[in-house]
Amino acid sequence: xxxxxxxxxxxxxxxxxxxxxxxxxxxxxxxxxxxxxxxxxxxxxxxxxxxxxxxxxxxxxxxxxxxxxxxxxxxxxxxxxxxxxxxxxxxxxxxxxxxxxxxxxxxxxxxxxxxxxxxxxxxxxxxxxxxxxxxxxxxxxxxxxxxxxxxxxxxxxxxxxxxxxxxxxxxxxxxxxxxxxxxxxxxxxxxxxxxxxxxxxxxxxxxxxxxxxxxxxxxxxxxxxxxxxxxxxxxxx
Length: 237
Hints:
By secondary structure, the chain is an alpha/beta fold. The chain has two domains: 1-38, no CATH class; 41-236, Rossmann fold, CATH 3.40.50. Helix content is 39%, strand content 15%. It has nine helices and six strands. The protein has a four-stranded parallel sheet, sandwiched between helices. The protein has a two-stranded antiparallel ribbon with strand order 3-4. Helix 9 links the parallel strand 5 (200-208) and strand 6 (228-236). The protein is globular and about 50 Å long. The model is unreliable at 2-13 (pLDDT under 50).
């Protein structure tokens, strides 16, 4: 009943104050279809490991020199223009409702480019960062995406145990060091065993830059017995 009342109230508000697209500001939706169609996809060819665009098929120079310890990373879009704006609205400006629309775009990509996955898990925030922000945008995306592609979302057994610097302020080498041993997997529900053991895990985040954070999550999950770990993000920087 409460949920129904909330939806009715939101519907009434939408009639009086129609939602506007965060990118083009036209009324009708938080992200309009036109702007979503303009989001730039990651162009082929791409590195078969980290997923960044390359000049030729195979591994990019970085992955040939130092391969990431993850089975692979894929991203739906390039982190620029409307995609960048939408992610900033979700991540920094409390616009949680965008998660469903953005996860829908991720689901569209996943259906055309499926990855090996038995379950979904979000890149976690450190408890201090979570208290500061109030929510984890990766978790919002993961829960919405899991429901859309029919995969269970793993409870928060994957934890960030070190409060690291923001990755955006660091170069590639420092990013790896910054998140080294920053994650740990420990099932917190008694009697459920280890849901990651022997499973293919899809780790979801909003943006991938160097892949260091996703690699650190992969190391923690594989140490806990995951058979494979893939990273999947909305955008690639």
